[in-house]
Give the backbone structure.
Amino acid sequence: MAAYLDAVPFSGIIRIRDMMYTVDRPFRLDQGDVSFDAPDTVKDALVSGVAENRTHYVQTTGIPPLIDRLVTKLRERNGIPVDEAGEVMVTSGGIHAVFCACHALLEPGDEVLMPDPEWPPAQGNVAGARGVAVPYPLHASRGWRPDVDEMRRLVTPRTRAIYVNSPNNPTGGVLSHDDLQAIADLAAERDLWILSDEAYEDFVFDGGPHVSIASLPGMYARTIPLYTFSKTYAMTGLRLAYTAIKDTTTRNRFRKMLFLTVANTSSLIQYGGVGALAGSQHAVGEFRTELVARRDLFYKGMIETAPQVFSGTPPSGAFYAFLKVNPDWRSPLADAPASPSWAMTEFLIRKGRIGCVPGVDFGANGEGYIRFCFARGREELLGAIESLRSIL
Ligand SMILES: Cc1ncc(COP(=O)(O)O)c(C=O)c1O
């Protein structure tokens, strides 16, 4: 890796994080982090791991008690026909899994169809593996779902894979079963891989349950499904995620990247993961129920407070409000950026202490929108709404 990395964009989220550290008493609606804490089952397992000296090297792809539980979860919950434990691999967070997957799959110049808008590290990792991200639009008018015929027209002889992210960050759009089947048919027809980012699988609010494209007939052989403990178990800082890959060549390449980057994912954190899966899943249901309440509270508050500025309908999944900014709105700041979504973001942060991310940071198709994370506590959400009222 060398000079070409200079051309790989750094997410604007980093710039925003730096801005937020200069703000007194900020409302941190910019980060995709939940305000919940990890369940006791996770914390107890971590404490026991320390007491039992689980501090040595472990298997590159993951410790057996965790892998065994993941095999069961992938088969029973996701319907993915995992044959044997060797297909499952544990990584240091979802972003690391995306990194390893892109390096396992892409030759320089290979094209990957990417949703637009999309979580920026997805494109960054495609570019980091010397691939080329080719955006396919998600349409607000279709609940932020793509038009698969439009995707088909973007496929070229260089296309290697399609990145699918449902529920989507930042829009909260959820693909229907028909969408997934149409994308699967396209992949089979043009012999493409699918990178299926299912980080928000447990946060489908309407029209669930979540369906993995890897569970559709024949699709596991050409899909790399990616899951993380970050969101489901409020373990964002602990860094634990996983995948299952059927194809032996791709799996071996992935395993090499895993070894070369971390040797093994932290032993202790993997025991925390065992605690998460072994214990009651009650907390996950509670998180989901609370998120629906926060989603509704936040939308109502934002739209009622500033109907002339913000519009949008509550998303079906994930935990972000992706609100449209009225194109006639003008920032009162003298040095406002030219991009409308950056102008609104800087105004909200500097005048209202409200953390948020400009839609354009997720792709050109996100210009004119702002992302707010509603997984923060109710008081923080209400504080942000009150602050908005005072500055508009
Ligand atoms: C769409 C999407 N995929 C993957 C991830 C990876 O999360 P982590 O690296 O914390 O596992 C995130 C995190 O925000 C995300 O939004």
